[in-house]
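Let us practice reading a record.
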Amino acid sequence: MKRVIVGITGGIAAYKAAEVVRGLCTRGIEVHVLMTEAATRFITPLTMQTLSGNPVVVDMFAEPRLWNVQHVAYARRADLVLVAPATASFIGRLAAGIADDMVCATILATKAPVVIAPAMNSQMYRHPAVQANLDRLRDMGYHLIAPEEGELACGERGEGRLAEVARIIAEVLKHLERKADLAGKNIMITAGPTREYIDPVRFVSNPSSGKMGYALAGAARDRGARVVLVSGPTALRPPSGVQVIPVTTTAEMLAAVLEHFPEMDVVIKAAAVVDYRPQTTAEQKLKKGSDKLVLTLERNPDILKLLGERKGDKILVGFAAETQSLVENAREKIKAKNLDLIVANDVGQRGAGFGTDTNIATIIRRDGTMREIPLCSKQELAHHILDEVVALTGGERG
């Protein structure tokens, strides 16, 4: 029987936690509830105890029924920890590593997956401090269920409403079913843009944020792989537990990739590499002179093609960012680069371009079979891609 710890924090959406707990219990999951003191102002521990069939813990310093350190005991017993709802205050404390209640303390002590469902006023949710804390939690490997848009307790309408109960339960079940199906595998992922300098202060590049590659690195780590992330310049915080190799130019990325390529089982090229570089780079900043500046560009090495020529029995995954003839161009790239799998994006679609937190993709195998992935978070798409990688290794899709 799977065991889930449900943490409830002090927001008006706390009443929905009762439905979440009941839904998990009816699916044969053993549920233990932890509540912050503020949560008890919205729903009673007795309600949660009745629904879960287990004692509810609120006070970190209450004498335990058995002699143990309670937060450590719960942390070790968990197959998954869910926090629903998660308030702005709780998110800030967890992001800072402050263990001043049972929910935070248990999460900091657990090795189990942690799923967090925020709920708050829309202005609070959009506040830069809250968004920075959410980004920090993502970087730490926590899984976030984005809130929905709708009527809020304050009478306003906007983003911040707790995700639907069915969606939360489905997300929990998905994580419980996911296995460490990449354990023992060495996976290299490239991410972000490269830069090719014109002079010391100007360069040729592209708008890639690196979010897709970083999501893949975190997802592969969560599924048991040893991950090497070769990253161009980004504003992202690297996922914990991942070996990160920072690079700037395409030549530097090529050198790093070739150095680690022999030991890899899987290579996923999610980086947006600059195809052309200036033929010469000025040693000093170019001063404005005439109204025109003419640059002569030359081709950069095609990293993906070079890997395809020497891949042997390794699995090689590429990306195709297209604005037209998506499937046709992606299939041609599979053949030209000797790929096993390609992830094709129409970057002209809303929600699928560079820099977004979401994506829309068509995953195409070498044999021509395809999977259409509708609009989803890049974390979700990362797992869809890794499901295909697992299938290519002889495993089953998650």
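A brief commentary: The chain has two domains: 3-177, 186-392.
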